[in-house]
Amino acid sequence: MDPFTRTLHVSVWLTLRRTVKMTSVSRAVDRRPARDPDPETNGAAHTALFDGYLEPDRPHPDAFDEMFNADGTVRAPYRRLHDAIAPTAAADLAARSDALDRAYLDQGITFSLSGKERPIPLDIVPRVISASEWSRLQRGIVQRVKALEAFLADVYNDAQIVRDGVLPRRLITSCEHFKRAAHLLNPPNGVRIHVAGIDLVRDQEGTFRVLEDNLRNPSGVSYVMENRRTMARVFPDLFTRQRVRAVGDYSTHLLHALRAAAAPNVADPTVVVLTPGVYNSAYFEHSLLARQMGVELVEGRDLFCRDNLVYMRTTEGEQRVDVVYRRIDDDFLDPLQFKPTSVLGVAGIMNAARAGNVVIANAVGNGVGDDKLVYTYVPQMIKYYLDEKPVIPNVSTFRCWLDEERGHVLDHLDELVLKPVEGSGGYGILFGPDADAKQLKEARKAIRDDPRGWIAQPVVQLSTVPTKVDDRLVPRHVDLRPFAVNDGEDVFVLPGGLTRVALPKGSLVVNSSQGGGSKDTWVLAASRASESERELGERGIASKAPASGPAAEQGRELTLDQQQQQQQQQQGRDD
């Protein structure tokens, strides 16, 4: 056994050992007897937890708070949660919060930040969304996914929307993620967006708005499932007061959509999850989804193409692959079509897809649909393709490539948020109100040099949710990323999604790559959940991975440094 493999085996053994220890500790926490009501201690705890929560001198005091009305009364969806948390002693809350942190660390649920692996902080106070509010959000997300599907099908074929003058042609051709190699490459069931992550924010008036679309490799759904599982184990008493819709069946819907994407003449499609490797920041999610779907997790070296067919190397020999759920960016997917130096992809997979012998999910070229400038035209797409008005509005956005709007941005840059069109993960954003004269001057020059590369938006005071900081609960800003799965006939939206929280006081940047954390997101059920919605339902999800697995790479080995560098380089929207 080589040293690297031996190290991995030891690491896995230690992780399993820590997980067993953590489970026994968390069970001990769960089984502690409830504290007897004590007017003195509970009253003090209530005061201590929420003391000064709505203080007028807090950062962004005009932000919409999800739990409290402006007069301090508790909003209806949060009343039961508030009543459960308010009497809790600070020491008990701290103990349970520590248990959440240990659960993620011991299970290896981490994210790469500044080159170091760390667990994403899971806050102990969940976010709650009422049934009626979620119903509207769900309709809006489905509407948006359908319009973007129609747009992608159009621009990679006849581009009728351009011919009709709804969008300018240069908007498409100037997009870095418009891939000419995908022209006329039409998937068997017409689905290009198998998985979408739609980022939402709630403004000062309490209105949900779309901040951006993620149609390439949207990540974070693993944290949605693990947040729920960990919260249910460490804080089970909270769930006894609410009817919360389940999130555990996501993998069932994803597997169904991937199998439905295969060519119609394939009776039993073979699906694989293609990962860049263990050094990728979202590797935990790749392995979790493969395990829950009961399919193989492969790297590029485990696959090869012959005669426009894709095969997987296994211990039992070659096996034909029909659907590749890739978590690799376009540029690294096929060295024959994109980056010739890529060692992460599969040479020839694009030709196999064009021949109809394999389906790539999500489709190559989807990035033209989630470009931040193209985003500003999605309301027109909804009108053009669906003849509907947007259910969820966009955040107001100024497009610097238009002369009039660019002039407004240059004149009011100190009041706006400037974003790079090709940026992701919260990098490159300039908050005008916090910028100094030198930063504003440099930003204006960047806008003039590359108008296509920038958009600007008003500062949106993201809504706040109580978040544990030290021994108190304080307001922290949040966003929401719901996940939608399209199987060609229906768009399933996972109830809730990933709530990301900006942990530093006053910060509006929630990205995990910028030090943000997460919250469990509770969508309340309108009526008692059906049998199929129960949290522990396992129907359709394999209990263990298949016995066979990819064999070791045949041929020249790549150095670990080469693998690590490319795995970390290709992050795409994995944030």
UniProtKB/TrEMBL annotation:
<feature type="domain" description="Circularly permuted ATP-grasp type 2">
    <location>
        <begin position="126"/>
        <end position="502"/>
    </location>
</feature>
<dbReference type="InterPro" id="IPR025841">
    <property type="entry name" value="CP_ATPgrasp_2"/>
</dbReference>
<protein>
    <submittedName>
        <fullName>Uncharacterized conserved protein, circularly permuted ATPgrasp superfamily</fullName>
    </submittedName>
</protein>
<feature type="region of interest" description="Disordered">
    <location>
        <begin position="526"/>
        <end position="575"/>
    </location>
</feature>
<feature type="compositionally biased region" description="Low complexity">
    <location>
        <begin position="562"/>
        <end position="575"/>
    </location>
</feature>
<dbReference type="InterPro" id="IPR016450">
    <property type="entry name" value="UCP005522"/>
</dbReference>
<feature type="region of interest" description="Disordered">
    <location>
        <begin position="26"/>
        <end position="45"/>
    </location>
</feature>
<feature type="compositionally biased region" description="Basic and acidic residues">
    <location>
        <begin position="28"/>
        <end position="38"/>
    </location>
</feature>
<dbReference type="InterPro" id="IPR051680">
    <property type="entry name" value="ATP-dep_Glu-Cys_Ligase-2"/>
</dbReference>
<dbReference type="Pfam" id="PF14403">
    <property type="entry name" value="CP_ATPgrasp_2"/>
</dbReference>
